[in-house]
Every structure is written in structure tokens, then in C-alpha cells.
Design brief:
This protein is mostly helical. It is built from eight helices and four strands. The strands form two sheets. Strands 1-2 form a two-stranded antiparallel sheet. The chain has a two-stranded antiparallel sheet with strand order 3-4.
Length: 213
Amino acid sequence: MIKEISYSSDEKLQIKIKIKDESFCSSSWSDDDISNIKDKIKEHYLSTQKYQCPYCKQTIKSKHGRYWDIEHIIPRSYAPSFIFEPFNLCMSCVDCNSAKSDKKVTNSKAKVTYPKLSSAYLIIHPHFDKYSDNILVIKEGLYYVAKTKKGEKTIETCKLNRFYEFSNFDSSIQEDETIFLLSTQLKLETDKKIRNKITCKIAELAIKGSLSS
């Protein structure tokens, strides 16, 4: 979980005026007159997250825009009123942000008061959920195993296994490496449900490998 940003009094006034403007909408995020706010958001969350994407858990030690996007957990298109909400903000890698896009992440209908309960969200919320309770990371940037329904939805929504599916390695090498990583994790895992999931995945990859050989 990450620490939310705090705005100064002047920044709060600036945000209030912006939201009350009759032309304010989701696309207002691109307006030049809030560039100072966006810069502060970026600096804060990259620092508090230690340059780690909250969805794929990859660490990218760069401030370059080609690697990072300001992430609105509840999409701007769904609730423009939450554009500046501290609990709705974080930094995510460009790939996770693009995959997540404006997909549905909450069952809440709230448009004014931001929902602050974990149970209101379909995916892992960087501010309200403990990542390791929901997803087992076999290797950052390679393979992830869901521990919960919320973990499954996060993997699906952010396409976390895209790294494995679209890497340039030969498929047999991919499968062998993943089986090795899964087997190593299996030795360490004590949770019976997670062990069963890992065992099933190892079997699935082994069968796939034997059929393709």
C-alpha cells in the first residue's frame, strides 16, 4: 500500500476552481493550467512507490514519460470528479496503464465521495490492498499467480502475463524457465490452495511442452 499525496492550500484552491469550471470534464486532465499539479503528483508517487509499478511490481528507475503514466485507479472517463483525489492516484508503468485503460474496476456508483473500502474494488487497489495477499509474483515481468478473485481480475485487467506471452524467447525455453520458477516457488509455498494452483500450472506447461515436442 502507498502513501497518498497531500496538496497545499493554494493547490487545493486551484483544484477547486478547476473542478467548478463549467467546461470541466475528463479531458481537462490534458489542460496546461494544471501542469504544476501533475508534476507534483508524479514526483510524489514515484518517490513513495520507489519507482515500482503497483500492478506488475517491476521497478523502473527513470522519470521519463515513456516509462510512467499518472494512473487514475477509477478511470477519469467514469468519474471526472475523482481526477485529483489522492486515493485515486498513483504512478503505473505505461504498459499496465494502457492495458487497464478505462476498464471497470469498481462496483461503486459513487461520483462525489470516493469509495475507500477495499471491498468496493474488483482489482487490487494500491492504497487499500496488500498486493501479496492477492497475487504471488513468480518473477517480476515474467509470471504471476492469483491467490484471490481480486488477484485474478488484476492479472486479467492489466494483462500481467503479457511479458510471458509476448517475449521474444523460444516458447519451449519460456515454458522450461517458467516450470523451473514455479517449481522453486512450490518448495517455498505453505498455503495449500496456492500450492495446488502452482502444481496445476506446472502440469499444464509440462503437457503443453510434450505435445509441441
